[in-house]
Queue: 3 jobs
Job 1
Amino acid sequence: MHKRPYSFIKILKSNTGDSLTTDENDDQPEKKLSHIDEKKSDTQLQPAEGSHSCPENVEQPNDGLKECIKFVVIHNKNKYDVEFPLDETVAKLKLHLQNLLGVPQSLQKVMYKGLAKDEKLLREIGLCEGAKVMVVGSKLDDVLAVSTPNSQAASEEKNQSSSKEPLCKQKNHKRIVDRGVPEDAMPGILNTKEPLPPFPLCGMLNKSGGKVRLTFKLELDQLWIGSKERTEKIPMSTIKSIISEPIDGHEEYHIMGIQMGTTEASRYWFYWVPAQYIDSIKDAILGPWEA
């Protein structure tokens, strides 16, 4: 048998740079890798650099993350950094702020370029990155602390009203009412509820018979009572109750009393208040849960 005098090895290089050795006696080459690097791939989707993640308690759409913005919420002179989806409603924002501020959702008033309605999206009210949002509302503990006295005062007021003659017939009110409707009084409308106008309510009289106007500073949670002599700024949270009664013969106007303390002497009285604004005044000062 013929034998080969020697065998030789050919060194081959693959396109990838791996070394291949083969012997002429072998039918198939043996592939030997000089270096093997094992890498694990991460297939998880990462948010783009600079994007904002949304709060965990906000529902996320199936097709991706919601667009979120960062802004500042101001409540009782305290500032809170908030991040929230731009296409969520004001009502959802209130729910998110409930735990942050300690103010129940139903007691919150969100102010941004005016009063923001619950059904509006943050995008619709024009909220933008870095904006400042004012939230007005009392914490639940504060509400509960005054709710019992308020209920008692209302009950006492009801009992007193049932036993007394109408306000416009009582001596201290009659002297003002008998002067008649002021020439500059705002028109009164019966059986209608209108929102507060963007300007002060004017053309009314106070208990001294002087001209008086009411300005509702919702963003400051204040009621401004202006007269010729001065403007008094009253925190709405200090107003315990509001009573009102139509004026006989002029039912489109009311006598309205704002209760500041526990006695009748601590009331501010206003005469010739247009009837269509009475409910809105109570809602703005006391909130719909009290009014």
Note: The longest helix spans residues 140-163.
Job 2
Amino acid sequence: MSSFRKALKSKQRDHKERSQPGFRKHLGLLEKKKDYKLRADDYHRKQKTLNALRKKALDKNPDEFYYKMINTQLKDGKHVIKQKEEEMTEEQKKIMRTQDIGYVEMKRVAESKKIERLKSELHLLDVESKQKNSHVFFVDTKKEVEDFNLATHLNTVPELVNRAYNRPTLDTLMNKSILGAVTPKNIEKLAKQRKVRYAELSQRIDREKKMFVISQKIQTRKDLQDKNKKVKVKNETSTAPAIYKFETKRKR
């Protein structure tokens, strides 16, 4: 019996749905049964969801109350919880400002230590190996000015004249071996690394200055809480806190 069914099944052809007729091609693809099934399932799923919501709305208690009814507001079509304004006492504000000053001072001290370490590593060498300051040589006659040779005067080779540091003399070059980078590639690599370190040093110095100004501003605001009458003498800037003049009552 099973062999007969297999033979019968093998003779059956797969059912193929017809395609869109030629005169109806402007209407697009002809919907097949599998497409209709997907669309119908999606429609029924949405209808079930709507029916469940309607039933939930009908069964809802009209006297029901929960706090989000008054703690939320509608913004751009979405419910957003209202932010509560925390009321702080003057004593709490003073404590917070004291903690802020301590934190900023801690960060500023850490930055200053890093700055000192960078300075000790770099030895304040120029990044581009060019002298920023001028060196004046004095001679007695005009002939000496015309015949003046900087390399001969400094007792070094002409290639090292423009260096601001590490400028050995001829005797040193003759008698001692050269230590460190000597190839142009290595020298260029070290120069780039030195430039990056100097840029980091400059950024840390600026950060340390800003932290010092911030701590001064916080301290000024903290001091103002203890005073009743004050007159502003100078407005606050990005590099300095505001300056106030306090008026004291004279006793009669």
Note: The mean pLDDT is 76.
Job 3
Amino acid sequence: CKTAVESLPTSFSKADLEYIEKRLKLDFINSGENPAVILADLGAIKAKHANLFFEMEEIAAAQRRSMGSVRRSINTIKELTQHLQPAVSASFFLYSEHHSQIEVLGCGIRQLSDSAFKSVPLSIRSKVKLPELNSFYQQLQEHLCKNNSSLSMQKMKQLKLNMSEAKLKVLQHLTLIEIDKKGSVRLLM
């Protein structure tokens, strides 16, 4: 404070300078801010800043590593896709033969056409009737779309879906559903 006071222009009298010095001291005392405390706080803030900067550098390095990993994974997936594309195209052709004969009703619910139904061998469709199959398939789609899961045979019976093994086999033959080893059914479309 004395250096600030001493550097003031000389046009002030000595009494004026003493008053300014006392006033500055009083302001420091009344404000409750001790310059030593302010300097200590400033040092703590600088240390926190340095620590945060170091952590930010670590995070940026981790992000660069993870982005490199993601890029490598994407490149691997691209290579696999290019390698598998001929086989997938052939499978899609067979899949679309059946599915082009499926009608889409409101809310995305699908219904089998007569030609799709008749494309299933008689030994598989046995005594199944198309209207009953479409009714069951609609119920199955509605439930599985709402719950986004699979259904066990037991649960289908509890829900009183008009289920039969023959209907499931027809839908499975048309690759509309998949039945896992536990007997749970899930939609493929």
Note: Residues 90-97 have pLDDT under 50 and may be disordered.
